[in-house]
Amino acid sequence: MAKSAEVKLAIFGRAGVGKSALVVRFLTKRFIWEYDPT
Q1: Which of 9, 14, 20, 35 to pair with 27, CA 20 to 30 A apart?
Q2: Kind of enzyme, top EC level (predicted)?
Q3: Do 32 and 21 touch, CB atoms closer than 8 A?
Q4: pTM of model > 0.90
Q5: Containing H/E element for 25?
């Protein structure tokens, strides 16, 4: 069985541009339309 590689990823950007929404989309395959900006 193949080993999984550990990946570290940093997301940079200005406030309110959708960094958290992008991460949620990548991890869950869903997009949250009513996202409260942090």
Answers
A1: 14
A2: hydrolase
A3: yes
A4: no
A5: helix 19-28
Q: Could you give the dihedral angle defined by the CA atoms of residues 18, 20, 31 and 28, in that order, rounded to the nearest 10 degrees?
A: 150
CA distance 24 to 27: 5
- C-beta of residue 22 within 8 angstroms of C-beta of residue 31: no
Amino acid at 35: Y
Q: Are the beta carbons of 35 and 20 closer than 8 angstroms?
A: yes
The neighbour count for residue 22, using CB atoms within 10 Å, is 13
Amino acid in position 17:
V
